[in-house]
Write a structure and sequence with these properties.
The chain has about 475 residues and is an alpha/beta fold. Helices cover about 55% and strands about 10% of the residues. The strands form three sheets. A five-stranded mixed sheet has the order 1-2-3-4-5. Bound molecules: adenosine-5'-diphosphate (ADP) and magnesium ion (MG).
Length: about 475
């Protein structure tokens, strides 16, 4: 097990020894022998002071990894041994200092048991890469039908030592785990081979840096920086669309990296072909690797995620409450997490246990917002029955006014009431082009202007769908 340095602290050494031994053996069972040898064994307990366990590790990289992966467990296990423990502090103390017990470098110290803080993942291109969230690891990612393909692809890229598919393009709606998977790839690669440079960046940051470089007439440096990375990850590239010079630069950086056999990982809220305002050559370049989409969550996945999060938080949440949440909060995982956090915080604050009734009270605003969300399918059904046409006519090629008009109304409402893009809407209407949808939206707007009966129809449908 990891060592205990004799320091003569408040708690007697023997006691700390015993507690550490027991924490170690629990951890060993939980994480397996290999991980135990790599990460737990090199830890040295320096003592316990003011309810804080102080643990040193020999390198900064190890500190980052331990904090990212084991901090919460370390704390929970230690707290189970001694309820007076309020925090576990992991800091860096290079091997050469260990004999002399020189004071650790306080700057390098990170309070490990503070939950949910973004944490910078290491010394690799700190100035270029954005901080990584320590909770966003593969271990913490719950896999289900909607995300299994994206997960498998991300995991393959993280494990690979050669470039497999370039780029890996991950897409899906907000809050479904794109950023989580990207951070997981970064954590994984940094752990497996610290010599590889992994840069993770939002597309907005990328753009901002590029524009700054332009202003400072420093674009050469900008290019060199990016061209020396092994793995480049750009999150939310839909933000690059429309900005011509940034697109151009992104395209060149992209090509240069691909030519040099570097791995690129991209995320967006839409598939490459649906990205509006994206230049054609960039779009086709983006789609020539592997495209993995993350679908909307299913009830089973939501339940799995809730169980996993509750366990991580170390709280008891009744099964009934989790089922209720999984049924009701369907929009995305971020909202689901938010709901769980609020319920737990509320229960702890008022000191009462969690029930379906209190849950309904505490998150009534979220519940209402989730009720209101409409799908394109519902819109099609409602509109078809309102105008007395067949549902299949929403997808059919028939052009008779009697079916074409209701179809246009449905497209219009889909644009107004959902967050779907024009191409996505087009596809749901029998694979029509996005220009057809655009035309429908304009046509309906126009008709509403001079036909008040029609305007009322549309308004009525909207209210029914929203109600
Ligand atoms: P996106 O980037 O797609 O908008 P994020 O990756 O930021 O979404 O995910 C939103 C939140 O939901 C994060 O806290 C993330 O950890 C969590 N999350 C999403 N999918 C999963 C999953 N499959 N398992 C566990 N947590 C998830
Ligand atoms: Mg994201």
């Amino acid at each position: 097990m990891g060592a205990v340095e004799k320091m003569g602290t408040g708690t007697t050494d023997n006691l700390v020894d015993e507690q550490w031994a027991s924490v170690c053996s629990r951890l060993r069972m939980e994480i397996g022998e290999a991980a135990y040898q790599s990460w737990v064994k090199p830890m040295t307990v320096r003592g316990v002071r003011d309810g804080q366990v102080r643990i040193s590790v020999p390198t900064r990289f190890m500190r980052d990894w331990v904090v990212a992966h084991y901090a919460d467990r370390l704390f929970t296990l230690w707290n189970g041994e001694d309820a007076a423990i309020r925090a576990v502090d992991v800091f860096v103390q290079p091997e050469r200092y260990q004999e002399t017990s020189a004071p650790p470098d306080e700057k390098d110290s990170a309070a490990a048991a503070r939950p949910a803080t973004a944490y910078n993942g290491g010394r690799y291109n700190d100035d270029l890469s954005a901080p990584l969230d320590r909770r966003f690891t593969f271990e913490n990612f719950v896999v289900g039908k909607p995300n299994e393909f994206a997960y498998a692809a991300a995991h393959r890229v993280a494990e690979a030592t050669t470039v497999l598919f370039n780029p890996l393009f991950l897409y899906g709606g907000v809050g479904l785990g794109k950023t989580h998977l990207m951070h997981a790839i970064a954590w994984h690669i940094r752990a497996a081979d610290p010599s590889r440079t992994v840069v993770y960046l939002s597309a907005e940051k990328f753009m901002y840096r590029f524009i700054r470089a332009l202003r400072e007439k420093n674009t050469m440096d900008f290019k060199d920086q990016f061209r020396s990375v092994d793995v480049l990850m750009i999150d939310d590239v839909q933000f690059i669309s429309g900005k011509d010079s940034t697109q151009e630069e992104f395209f060149h950086t992209f090509n240069a990296l691909v030519d040099q056999g570097r791995q690129i990982v991209i995320s967006a809220d839409k598939s490459p072909s649906d990205l509006e305002g994206m230049e054609e050559r960039l779009r086709s370049r983006l789609s020539c690797g592997l495209v993995g989409d993350i679908h909307a969550t299913t009830y089973e996945l939501r339940l799995g995620i809730l169980q996993s999060k509750a366990e991580q938080m170390g709280v008891e949440v009744p099964g009934k409450v989790m089922e209720f949440l999984a049924h009701k909060i369907t929009a995305n995982v971020r909202e689901l997490e938010g709901a769980l956090n609020r319920i737990v915080a509320h229960a702890q604050l008022v000191g009462r246990s969690i029930s379906v009734e209190t849950t309904q009270e505490v998150i009534h605003d979220l519940l209402r917002a989730n009720d209101r969300r409409v799908t394109i399918e519902e819109i099609q059904k409602r509109v078809a029955s309102h105008f007395n046409i067949r549902l299949s006519d929403m997808h059919s090629a028939r052009r008779a006014r009697s079916v074409a008009r209701p179809r246009q109304v449905a497209m219009y409402l889909a644009k107004q009431l959902t967050s779907r893009s024009l191409p996505e809407i087009g596809r749901k209407f029998g694979g029509r082009d996005h220009t057809t949808v655009m035309h429908a939206v304009r046509k309906v707007d126009e008709l509403r202007e001079y036909d008040s009966g029609f305007a009322e129809d549309v308004e009525l449908l909207r209210r029914m769908l929203e109600g």
